[in-house]
Design a protein that fits this description.
The protein is an all-alpha fold. The chain has 15 helices and two strands. The protein has helices at 5-36, 39-59, 61-66, 69-90, 95-126, 131-181, 198-211, 213-243, 247-272, 278-289, 291-298, 303-331, 337-347, 352-384, 398-401; strands spanning 183-184, 421-422. It has a two-stranded antiparallel ribbon with strand order 1-2. Helix 7 crosses helix 13, helix 8 runs antiparallel to helix 9 (247-272) and helix 11 (291-298) packs antiparallel against helix 12. It is globular. Pfam families: MFS_1. Residues 215-424 form the Major facilitator superfamily (MFS) profile domain. It is found in: Cell membrane. The chain crosses the membrane at residues 28-51, 72-90, 220-241, 253-274, 281-299, 305-328, 340-364, 370-387.
Length: 424
């Protein structure tokens, strides 16, 4: 592997490893709580993880714009490793320790995840790759971890128990921290004419997200579709499977088909996506990946057809996500990229706490079939909303395609163009 590929490879492995660790954690901890406590306690522990994650990610933007993102990411993963190790060492930890540890893990992972998003365009430039390819490779890492992680967690818990599974998650976080730490930025970027107040800097990022039309459209789309996706997965799919006599196994097979196909299509998009008109890739991808998998349930199609539709939906997911992320990276001002990525990611989660309640209320009002049709139509309208704001074509020049590499400056040094380095 050439030197320029080192930072990109390290970041991709770090993302995949951290996500796999979280998948292990998010199955092992609820399993531990359920076996020793109640479902209410399991829900409380899950909330202790999610809420700090969203809040700290949204607030971390100014930090990411003033500090090397590799350091923020490495620090977050290291804190997570220590917190998980504490749970593993406790054997059967009390509820207060579970809640505290999960809150610490969520608070550390929010900024760390945003930092890796901020770092990705720079390491893609260092590898001399187009932006869509770097984003597609990141989607491959994420989808692979999301698909394999839960299966690995279930197998490890059944074979070795929750304590050893938690030790493995802690080890994964430690490895990802070390990998990300070695991605060096030569200088600290100077932030010109920035207000001193952290809240003022944060507000500057909020203004950019909501005043820039592409960013505003993409953010609104994320909020709506993530809320609908959560309601679909948590409430509607299990309810549909039960009412149609398919059971939990078939519901899991549907989601696995989509996840596996998304990995394969993201691999293809990594090599072909940069040659496709980005607007076309987005439009085709979102239509076949979003409303189709909801409407096919409303139509009560045969099981084989449903599995095929979900696999095709996975293909679309692997196509449109890189186009969206590359657009965000290109339209975000370089000096505000940390705030933009952190805010867009955090805002995309805000509908999740009410998603389940929204879905159950809709089912009570118009029954399951009516709810599925309403979700499908709402999903279609949401994904069509930002189409005109997606940049039409990937940039022809790799360097011109992405905002200038992050520039870092220490006192007494001069500013110069830099690229990420892989430390030895």
């Amino acid at each position: 592997m050439s030197r320029s590929w080192g930072p990109l490879a390290a970041l991709l492995v770090s993302r995949a490893g951290a996500l796999t660790g979280h998948r292990l954690l998010l199955l092992a901890v609820p399993w531990l709580v359920i076996t020793t406590g109640t479902l209410t306690e399991a829900g409380t522990v899950a909330l202790c993880h999610t809420l700090p994650y969203v809040i700290m990610q949204g607030l971390s933007g100014p930090l990411l714009d003033r500090s090397p993102p590799a350091r923020v990411a490495a620090g977050g993963d290291l804190i997570g490793a220590a917190a998980v190790a504490t749970l593993a060492a406790a054997g059967t930890p009390p509820l207060w320790l579970l809640m505290t540890a999960m809150a610490v893990i969520g608070a550390a992972d929010g900024p760390a995840a945003a930092a890796k998003n901020v770092l990705l365009p720079d390491v893609t430039v260092a590898a001399c790759q187009p932006p869509d390819r770097g984003q597609a490779l990141a989607v491959v890492a994420e989808r692979a971890a999301s698909t394999l992680g839960p299966a690995m967690a279930g197998l490890l818990i059944s074979l070795y128990g929750t304590s050893r599974t938690l030790w493995l998650a802690s080890l994964l976080f430690s490895v990802t921290s070390a990998l990300t730490w070695r991605i060096r930025l030569a200088e600290r970027r100077a932030v010109a004419s920035e207000p001193d107040s952290y809240l003022q800097q944060l507000w500057a990022g909020v203004r950019v997200v909501f005043r820039d039309r592409p960013l505003r459209a993409i953010t609104i789309m994320y909020i709506v579709t993530n809320c609908l996706d959560s309601g679909l997965i948590v409430i509607l799919i299990p309810l549909w499977a039960r009412e149609n006599g398919h059971g939990a196994t078939f519901a899991g097979l549907m989601l696995s088909a989509a996840g596996g196909a998304a990995v394969c299509s993201a691999i293809a998009a990594a090599w072909l996506g940069a040659r496709l008109p980005r607007q076309t890739a987005y439009l085709v991808g979102v239509i076949i990946s979003g409303p189709t998998r909801i409407i096919v349930l409303a139509l009560d199609c045969p099981p084989t057809v449903i599995i095929v539709v979900y696999a095709i939906a996975g293909v679309g997911s692997g196509i449109f996500n890189p186009a969206l992320r590359a657009t965000i990276a290109e339209v975000a001002p370089a000096e505000l990229r940390g705030r933009v990525f952190a805010l867009v990611d955090a805002l995309s989660w805000i509908g999740l706490p009410i998603a389940g309640l929204f879905a159950t209320t809709a089912v009570s009002a118009v029954e399951l079939t009516g709810t599925l049709w309403a979700f499908g139509i709402a999903y279609l309208l949401a994904v069509l909303y930002p189409v005109r704001r997606i940049t039409r074509h990937p940039a022809l020049s790799v360097v011109a395609a992405i905002p200038a590499p992050r520039r870092h400056r220490e006192p007494g040094t001069t500013s110069r163009d830099i690229t990420p380095q892989w430390s030895t």
